[in-house]
Design goal:
Radius of gyration: 18 Å
Order of helices and strands: EEEHEEHEHHHEHEHEEHHH
CATH superfamily of the domain at 5-88 and 161-245: P-loop containing nucleotide triphosphate hydrolases
Strand order of the largest sheet: 6-7-8-3-9-10
Shape: globular
Helix content: 25-40%
Bound molecules: adenosine-5'-triphosphate, magnesium ion
Largest sheet: 6 strands, mixed
CATH topology of the domain at 5-88 and 161-245: Rossmann fold
Number of helices: 10
Structural class: alpha/beta
Oligomer: single chain
CATH class of the domain at 5-88 and 161-245: Alpha Beta
CATH architecture of the domain at 5-88 and 161-245: 3-Layer(aba) Sandwich
């Protein structure tokens, strides 16, 4: 960790109302400017964990964002500090036009209109979706929706960006552009994904979640190359690491 932690989770436990235990005793810290991958099999708890970072879900234990506890009273500041890109873009987009969807957050933060307009343009350009302002987000392809979802969060210019499966449904060109865009962002990033090449490309550290627990937390290359560990949790050593060995 290169700096003071901006995310601190301590003894986090969470069960869904139907009794499914999704997080068990999760503790970790993320330093300012770090890019951390969160990997693990389907149902491991990755999305559930990300939903705790800005208080959409609250379990037992504590989450602190830049020293502020995720708790009632702090929610406005927490939501400004943590931008969350949902796994399903349908959860992110709800206004009649792409422009309004991207402008919604900054408008809510009471940013002046001219600045909002700049932010919308900048965010859409970053994800390669300029020119789509007047389109209805509901009539876009899934990959286009993913990109607009990311733009809605980029427009908030948050200190911390949590991304849930950001590259799913992106075509290879868009995926590469997206990786380039992520590399340019100075924000602290936490990325839940099955795209292990993405983790290799952008993350300095990775946490492996399985059955609601953190089973490993460490350097990306070392962890992703550990075949026994990866296969024990339904994961595979990424091809680019395999090839280097031959
Ligand atoms: N709304 C819900 N109600 C009840 N159980 C849920 C709900 N959402 C998720 N779960 C359960 O919680 C556990 C963790 O789910 P979660 O969505 O966090 O996994 P994930 O690691 O993100 O998986 P994936 O790789 O499929 O996205 C799973 O057992 C899942 O079935
Ligand atoms: Mg998920």
């Amino acid at each position: 960790m290169n700096n003071s932690p901006v995310v601190q989770a301590e003894s986090l436990n969470f069960s869904y109302p139907d009794g499914v235990r999704a997080l068990e005793n999760i503790s970790f810290q993320v330093g300012k400017g770090e890019t951390v991958g969160v990997i693990g099999p389907n149902g491991a708890g990755k999305s559930t964990l990300l939903l705790h970072l800005n208080g959409i879900l609250r379990g037992e234990g504590t989450v602190r964002i830049m020293g502020m506890e995720v708790a009632r009273g702090n929610m406005r500041r927490i939501r400004q500090a943590v931008g969350l890109v949902f796994q399903d873009p349908e959860d992110q987009l709800f206004t009649p036009s792409v422009y309004d969807d991207v402008a919604f957050g900054p408008l809510n933060m009471r940013i002046p209109l001219s600045e909002v307009d700049l932010r919308v343009k900048r965010a859409l350009a970053m994800v390669g979706m300029e020119g789509y302002e007047a389109r209805s987000a509901h009539h876009l392809s899934v990959g286009e929706k993913k990109k607009v979802s990311l733009a809605t969060v980029l427009a908030l210019e948050p200190e911390i960006i949590a991304l849930d499966e950001p590259t799913s449904n992106l075509d290879p060109g868009s995926r590469e552009e997206f990786i380039g865009c992520l590399k340019k962002l100075s924000a602290t990033k936490i990325i839940a994904t099955h795209d292990l090449e993405l983790v290799l490309a952008v993350c300095g550290r990775v946490m492996l979640l399985s059955g609601g627990r953190i089973v490993a937390d460490g350097g990306v290359r070392e962890l992703l190359a550990n075949r026994a560990l990866m296969e024990a949790h339904r994961l595979r050593v990424p091809l680019s690491l395999e090839r280097k060995r031959h």
